[in-house]
TrEMBL record:
Species, as recorded: Tsukamurella asaccharolytica
Pfam families hit by this protein: FAD_binding_3
SUPFAM superfamilies tied to this protein: FAD/NAD(P)-binding domain (SSF51905)
This protein's name: FAD-dependent oxidoreductase
Keywords of the record: Monooxygenase, Oxidoreductase
Top-level taxonomy: Bacteria, Bacillati, Actinomycetota, Actinomycetes, Mycobacteriales
InterPro entries membership: FAD-bd, FAD-dep_Monooxygenase_BioMet, FAD/NAD-bd_sf
């Protein structure tokens, strides 16, 4: 029987495991965490990602849990709309990461939780998939050297607050932005992205007093921003430094393939990371095909996968990085408008 080892039981690992299992592959999923996460931000499942979830068998659950988002808009700090409102060509479903992972896990084989692997030694599977995120241990086996994530020079603070909306709204100002999106469970998802150099002196520490930090950072902004800040659940606030991965010269070697953040971790500014990961999973399953047709040599199929997804993922990564730069800059209005049109074309 054709066998696959998947390192990483996140979105990409679970989706790939489910799709390959449907095709008759014997799949082992190794995940270093002790269980599925209980917390996490909201993720947008764009129409093409929903198509992959249909194939996986998770779309019905995702639609039942998630919130439809059909509109998106970018506004200035004062609330003036920048560019036209963007309407999705199909429904984009917003769902929190924990609920998405639960939906995927219900369709995938059992995960070996608590298995922290330092590499791929000892794995004798026909195919090895590195779905182990931005800090991938599999990546070095594919590229031939260690490729470390690179800092983007911005911090992110995310969380939730009670409420509802069907519109993605992002407010842009010099050195900082604030976003509000739908989220399942009767909540709104909010996030703050900021250049640490733009933080005024005397501002409270975001880890110790997230509401105080946000009040200082967004004082005088559109009233909806202030209302959201006052309603945040401070215990859900998470602060981290944004990173991505440099463009890789390859994402497959022999019988080993990378997908998702291991291959093209990106800035969060387009909301496309999870979608690109699902597209990777579908392309990899399509390239490998049915286990009954596998001839023992995975390399040709993995090269087909690489041709389909390496540059595609990297294009989105570069656009996300550019969008981050323009969003936090007050001067580049022409590039801003061009990027907004390019982003709209992806919807």
């Amino acid at each position: 029987m054709a066998t696959t080892a998947i390192i990483g039981g996140g979105i990409g690992g679970l989706a790939t495991a489910a799709l390959l299992t449907q095709q008759g592959w014997a799949v082992d999923v190794f995940e270093r965490a002790p269980s599925l996460p209980a917390t996490g931000t909201a993720l947008g499942m764009w129409p093409e990602a929903m198509a992959v979830l249909e194939r996986v068998g998770a779309a019905k659950a995702v639609r039942a849990i998630g919130i439809d988002q059909r509109r998106a808009e970018i506004r200035s700090a004062g609330g003036h709309r920048l560019g036209p409102e963007v309407r999705a060509k199909g429904a984009t479903v917003i769902i929190s990461r924990p609920r998405l992972l639960e939906s995927l896990a219900a369709c995938a084989p059992a995960v070996r939780f608590g298995d922290r692997r330092p590499g791929i030694s000892g794995l004798e599977h026909d195919v090895i998939v590195g779905a182990d995120g931005i800090g991938s241990v599999v990546r070095a086996h594919v590229v031939g050297r260690e490729v470390k994530p690179r800092p983007l020079g911005v911090d992110v603070l995310i969380g939730r607050c009670p409420g509802s909306t069907d519109t993605f709204t992002e407010y842009w100002g010099p050195g900082r932005l604030f976003g509000v999106t739908p989220r399942d469970g009767g909540y709104i998802n909010w996030y703050s992205e900021f250049d640490p150099r733009a933080v005024p002196g005397g501002t409270p520490n975001p880890d110790e007093d997230p509401r105080g930090f946000l009040r200082a950072m967004y004082r005088g902004w559109d009233p909806r921003v202030a209302e959201t800040i006052e309603g945040i659940e401070t215990e859900t606030a998470l602060h981290y430094r944004s990173r991505d991965v440099p463009r890789l010269p390859r994402i497959v070697r022999g019988n080993i393939a990378l997908l998702g953040d291991a291959a093209h971790a990106m800035a969060p500014n387009l909301g496309r990371g999870a979608c690109e990961t699902l597209l990777d999973a579908a392309a990899l399953a399509d390239a490998l095909g049915a286990a009954a047709d596998f001839d023992g040599d995975a390399a040709p199929a993995l090269r087909v996968y690489e041709s389909a997804r390496r540059r595609a993922g990297q294009r989105t990564m570069l656009l996300s990085r550019a969008m981050r730069h323009v969003a936090l800059t007050s001067r580049l209005r022409t590039p801003r408008d061009l990027l907004l049109r390019a982003a709209a074309a992806l919807v």
